[in-house]
Write the structure tokens for this entry.
Amino acid sequence: MVPGGLVDGPVYGTIFRQLKGLHLNEPDEFAELQNPYVVYHDDIGDYSTNEPTMDGTAGALYIWGWLAK
């Protein structure tokens, strides 16, 4: 768990279906919203759509620091 960090968003379904070693630890809470084009899972077992993103987090911290002046 990375408290306060941003995570990546949806990925193309074609990419998701080709990933190796991916398994959801919990039932897909967004199953009714998923489509073949893009998918997103808020699950620690999905390393592609729920991974911490350093570039997004760093950019957000920079902006928030500037706005805090």
